[in-house]
Amino acid sequence: MNIEYYGLHINNNELFNFINDSSTKEFLQSAHKAITNCEMWDWIRTKQIGSFMYDNGPEMQKIRTQMHKDPINMYHSGSSYGWIMREIEYIAKYGYSKYEEDCSKRSDL
Fold this sequence. Notes:
The protein is mainly α. The protein has helices at about 5, 20-40, 40-45, 60-65, 80-95, 95-105. The radius of gyration is 13 Å and the shape is globular.
C-alpha cells in the first residue's frame, strides 16, 4: 500500500487542513482514521459500493464499529455519513493529493 497515496504519511490532526468547515474536517479525519485502522483502503478503492448507509457486509460493519469509537460520529445523519464516505471513497480511488487539489475548486467545503 502506498501511504502517500492515501495520505497516511500525514499526522491525523493535520489531515484535511484545507477544509474550511470544522465539522466536515473532523468527520473526514475520523473516517480516514477508521479506514486506516481497519486497513480497508484497498477494499474501498476496488469495491463497487452502492450505498454506504445500507451496506451491511462484514467490511462495512468493521468500519462502522471503528467509527463509533470516535464521539464525533454520533452527530452524523444518514446523509452526512453517506457523503463523508463518498469523499473517502474518492480519496481511495484517486489519492489524497488529487482530493486536496480538487477541493480547492469546490465551494461546498
